[in-house]
Write a structure and sequence with these properties.
The protein has 433 residues and is an alpha/beta fold. It has two domains: 191 residues, Medium-chain alcohol dehydrogenases, catalytic domain (Quinone Oxidoreductase, Chain A, domain 1, Alpha-Beta Complex); 176 residues, NAD(P)-binding Rossmann-like Domain (Rossmann fold, 3-Layer(aba) Sandwich). The strands form four sheets. Strands 3, 4, 5, 8, 9 and 16 form a six-stranded antiparallel beta sheet that branches. A six-stranded parallel beta sheet has the order 12-11-10-13-14-15, with helices on both faces. A two-stranded antiparallel sheet has the order 1-2. Strand 1 and strand 2 form a beta hairpin. The longest helix has 16 residues. It binds zinc ion (2 copies). The site of one zinc ion has 4 residues, from loops.
Length: 433
């Protein structure tokens, strides 16, 4: 097999030289030794807008572990929410949970579940939630809710601990034996692959949840997507690809709605709500005027306001729909999505990952409408596999995924990226460690 080439360079000035890597091995062979004196550089969030570069000796992967050289990391809105104090997170820590990298070394002994390990220098993405593999939920295949999960980009930084390299805002990520890793085709651009580990896989999980809960395929369904950030845009593309009869996208940001149209929305609604959205999509889909008579084909999810043109967002009703997916996390958008459901409709909540005002629920309407409300947080390994396959197929078919990712900057510019995200920028900013 191919030896690992000397691509372990550090982007940070002053970092110790990181040299040639190590030869690859298969499962069952002895662990690859990473020569002493080689370091990874990580950008550690030290609170507020303070970031510091730390150098960590490259670990020798233990049994089933994988050492990955990060090629591109994208910035999820939740990274910015952590850095700006809107979302609690351990500090200091290495943030970042979306990225694509190249396998540098694999430990011996085989991986959890008996999966064959990717061989260096394979490009890979990895599940941001690493289940313990021992608890009742892991045993039931619900690793997203593992009782002892380690989440990449969400652990306290301990340079001497086993999770010292556990965020994508660094040159390397050190993956435990139970981490799920998905191979990426060699020719898939990094900008297309990097968002898979959060945005694409979570959107895949949301659509899968909609299908499970509703008991019907998305083909022919009327689908509402509120919040047209990276997750919402991906869900729009997936719903359209699945043959939805209608895909309605709602957001406060007209530029995002134009993107939604490009990615398959059949109709867009510009919401005249507050632009501050606490959720994963960072764009509120605040459709005012929701009322409770949406069951039975009389749904009204409020009226979008604002400008419209022949090819721009138009005001209109968002319902009735069979499936509503909220990625905004805005309470008003959640209420509007609920109100938009037709009978037997399913609401999937994804963006509500921080405290928000309660949303009124009319239980009679849920009963008479046979409505289903479900939540998706994180995702399962199969969703990441689905996400990569979807990105590969639709990229080859011409969907401009790479256009959603800004030109990457070095790790040293991370603070500005995390504290300065605003409208008008691509949904994903990026760093190349
Ligand atoms: Zn994320
Ligand atoms: Zn577990």
């Amino acid at each position: 097999m191919d030896p690992v080439q000397g691509d372990l360079t550090s982007a940070d000035a002053g970092a110790p030289a990181v040299g040639g890597g190590a030869p690859a091995v298969d499962a069952g062979m002895p662990a690859v030794s990473v020569a002493t004196g080689e370091y990874a550089a990580v950008r550690v969030w030290a609170g507020g807008s303070r970031f510091e570069t730390h150098h960590v000796p490259l670990p020798v992967p233990g049994d089933g572990e994988i050492l990955v050289r990060v090629r591109l990391a994208t910035v999820c809105a939740s990274d910015a929410h952590t850095a700006t104090g809107r979302r609690p997170g351990p500090c200091p820590s290495v943030l970042g949970h979306e990225g694509v990298g190249q396998v540098v070394a694999v430990g011996g002994g085989g991986r959890a579940g008996g999966r064959p390990p990717p061989r260096p220098p394979a490009p890979v993405v990895w599940n941001m939630v690493v289940g313990c593999g021992r608890c009742d939920r892991c045993a039931a295949g619900r690793t997203a809710g593992c009782r002892a999960a380690a989440k990449i980009g969400h652990v306290a930084f301990d340079p001497a601990g086993p999770l010292a390299l556990f965020g994508t805002f660094g040159t390397h990520v050190h993956l435990p034996r139970t981490a799920h890793v998905t191979r990426v085709p060699d020719d898939l651009p990094d900008e297309v692959a990097a968002p898979a580990a959060c945005a694409t896989a979570t959107a895949a999980a949301a659509l899968a949840a909609a299908v499970r809960a509703s008991g019907r395929p998305l083909a022919g369904a009327r689908v509402l997507v509120s919040g047209a950030g990276m997750l919402g845009l991906t869900a729009v593309a997936m719903a359209a690809d699945a043959g939805a009869a209608e895909v309605v996208a709602v957001d406060v940001d007209r530029s995002r709605l134009r993107l939604a149209t490009a990615f398959g929305a059949s109709r867009t609604i510009v919401a005249d709500g507050p632009t501050e959205a606490p959720g994963a999509g960072a764009h509120a889909a605040d459709t005012h005027g929701a009322n409770g008579d949406g069951v039975g084909g009389h749904g009204a999810a409020g009226h979008g306001a604002g400008g419209h043109g022949p090819d721009g967002p138009v005001p209109g009703r968002a319902g009735p729909v069979d499936v509503a997916l909220d990625f905004s996390g805005a309470a008003t958008a959640v209420a509007a999505a609920l109100a938009a459901l037709d009978g037997y409709g399913t609401l999937v909540l994804v963006g509500s990952v921080m405290p928000s005002p309660a949303v009124a629920l009319d239980p009679e309407r849920v009963v008479r409408g046979r409505l289903t409300i479900t939540g998706v947080h994180n995702y399962e390994p199969a969703d990441l596999d689905t996400a990569v396959a979807f990105l590969v197929r639709t990229h080859r078919a011409g969907l401009p995924w790479a256009s959603l990712v800004a030109r990457p900057i070095p790790l040293t510019g991370l603070a500005a990226l995390l504290t300065g995200h605003s409208t008008g920028q691509p949904p994903r900013l990026a760093v190349r460690p």
